């Protein structure tokens, strides 16, 4: 799967990229919400992992912009956060994010959610052959 990882913390970047690479996924990295939004305008992703608290543009604003753009409007966007603040939960309730993931994310949890997402992507891209 093609996964956009929006994360500004160097340690988390190393952890996520190693885990996702080990699982065989293609990773694009954005170090802030602005970079994530820019990447989403030029490439279609199967999944976006979006940190909430980032410099220049936070994950909430970036996700709103991605949802309004032409690409990735239906791509699943999972919020990544270390705290369950009221604003994150409120945004999730408004369907800004498809899911909220709490840091730290274990390898097994990441494997399970990417496998589930991969199955969803396959289901939505499969088309039955046309009959004449």
TrEMBL record:
Gene3D superfamilies associated with the record: 3.40.50.2300
InterPro entries to which the protein is assigned, alphabetical: CheY-like_superfamily (IPR011006), Sig_transdc_resp-reg_receiver (IPR001789)
Keyword rRNA-binding recorded:
no
On this chain, the residues bearing 4-aspartylphosphate are 51
UniProt xrefs under PROSITE patterns = RESPONSE_REGULATORY (PS50110)
* Superkingdom of the organism of origin: Bacteria
Keywords of this protein's UniProt record, alphabetized? Phosphoprotein, Two-component regulatory system
Q: Which GO terms describe its biological process?
A: phosphorelay signal transduction system
The UniProt record lists the Response regulatory domain at 2-118
Q: Which SMART domains match?
A: REC
Q: Which SUPFAM superfamilies would you find in this protein's record?
A: CheY-like
Record keywords: Nucleotide-binding included? no
Mind telling me what this protein is named? Response regulator receiver protein
């Amino acid at each position: 799967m093609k996964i956009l990882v929006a994360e500004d913390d160097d340690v988390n970047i190393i952890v996520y990229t190693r885990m996702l690479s080990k699982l065989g996924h293609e990773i694009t990295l954005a170090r802030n919400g602005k970079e994530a939004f820019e990447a989403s305008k030029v490439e279609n992703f199967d999944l976006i992992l979006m940190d909430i608290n980032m410099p220049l543009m936070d994950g909430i604003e970036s996700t709103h912009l991605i949802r309004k753009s032409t690409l990735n409007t239906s791509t699943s966007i999972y919020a990544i956060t270390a705290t369950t603040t009221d604003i994150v939960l409120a945004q999730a309730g408004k369907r800004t994010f498809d899911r909220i993931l709490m840091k730290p994310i274990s390898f097994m949890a990441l494997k399970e959610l990417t496998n589930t997402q991969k199955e969803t992507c396959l289901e939505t891209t499969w088309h039955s052959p046309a009959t004449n």
